[in-house]
């Protein structure tokens, strides 16, 4: 790897020489005693860092720094000064100098500051790259659809993105709630700040408060150091509370307070910390019903339901199915199987007629599966899973097992397993109920489950 370049601009030859000796092993050193020449070098050469003397006869360092900034906002500059003038140092920092070194400097100090500056530069570049990637991945351009339903979503999204309004996104699983939340953030003025996602359902109740609001060192047994919560991490950015309907009423109350006051207190702390966040919430539950049933706080519901965006299930926007299928074919085809070029009309028709209980995520998964399995360049109906090709077949587990051509004993096992799993699903894991549905005793069911390697949904529910 070529050495990274450092430019030293200093009117004292001794100072340049000292830097050169210290840094020449690790970096390529360019130097000049003239500010004007220094600016010319920066303009034509790929300099990564500048060591800039503040006091020079021809043009002072601050002026040079200002000129550098006019052209390049990201070039790392370390100021070098013989006089410790706080005022100048502050001015230099304001103009975005990374740090400053006082003459005479210690060898190690100079080395350390330069290597820190290089590291921070590398991190910033990486951050910039990742941000650009994210913006590209979550841009509005990646939301596909031409149905009336999705067009309305685009309209609302464009209107709401530039504001700070709270958005509540609802829709079945896999309808694109997270995608829309990200798109709002990345088209909003907050796009250069983080969007912090909280998967409310995935965090145990006991940890929720500390996750959201952070904690002070020693506030509970495992709190070995201070930790910032999601609200603080999202400061000046967007907080995305996913599956907000899963939050307990106690946590709901705390979230409401944080939103109203725009202030939080870390667990175990006393200080109020102000936070400036834009909130986006999502849920696949019917929150209105949850309010009526008393499981979701009415006041929080009103506080978050400012701009609602309801995502229709895929089966209610059939015009989008072919478009999405081709989009996913293109998106994943390049990586998985570039040989596949198109989906036949017959296959598209079958995809359009299917009910898509898992919505767009299910469609995306199916396209990935087809790409993995097919050896044709054109997707035909026979490449589709059976329950899509033959609507109505998905409920007969026996039918699908039979068509797979397994040995009888294996097929029977598979069928038993599928039936038991379905019954467990239907009875929400109440095993005595499951046994009743299947017409066996609880003991037989337990035996079967164990021999088939099925774990109960919730072993305490009997
Ligand atoms: N309109 C769309 N255009 C392109 N891709 C989409 C669209 N809607 C959803 N997707 C893709 O479908 C997948 C599921 O979307 P997403 O995770 O946003 O759904 P969700 O509603 O949050 O689901 P869940 O409720 O299960 O969390 C993602 O890979 C997403 O990129
Ligand atoms: Mg989601």
Fold and architecture overview:
The structure is a single chain. The chain is an alpha/beta fold and 462 residues long. It has 20 helices and 14 strands. Helix 3 links the parallel strand 3 and strand 4. The chain has four domains: 124 residues, Rossmann fold; 173 residues, P-loop containing nucleotide triphosphate hydrolases (Rossmann fold); 81 residues, Helicase, Ruva Protein, domain 3 (Orthogonal Bundle), CATH 1.10.8.60; 50 residues, Arc Repressor Mutant, subunit A. It binds adenosine-5'-triphosphate (ATP) and magnesium ion. Magnesium ion binds next to helix 7.
For this entry, give a set of tags:
12% strand, Helicase, Ruva Protein, domain 3, binds adenosine-5'-triphosphate, five-stranded parallel β-sheet, 462 residues, alpha/beta
What is this entry, summarized?
With 462 residues, the chain is an alpha/beta fold.
The biggest sheet, with number of strands, parallel, antiparallel or mixed sense and barrel status, is: 5 strands, parallel
Q: What is the alpha-carbon Rg in Å?
A: 31 Å
User: What is the second-level CATH architecture of the largest domain?
Assistant: 3-Layer(aba) Sandwich
Mean pLDDT metric: 89
What oligomerization state is this entry in?
single chain
Structural domain tally? 4
> What is the helical fraction, as a range of percent?
40-55%
Morphology call: elongated
Main structural class: alpha/beta
Which small compounds were modeled alongside the protein?
adenosine-5'-triphosphate, magnesium ion
Question: The CATH topology of the largest domain is what?
Answer: Rossmann fold
Low-confidence stretches: none
Strand order of the largest sheet: 2-1-3-4-5
In whole angstroms, how far apart are the ends?
65 Å
Number of strands: 14
CATH superfamily of the largest domain: P-loop containing nucleotide triphosphate hydrolases
CATH class of the largest domain: Alpha Beta
Strand content of the residues, in percent? 5-15%
Q: Helical segment tally?
A: 20
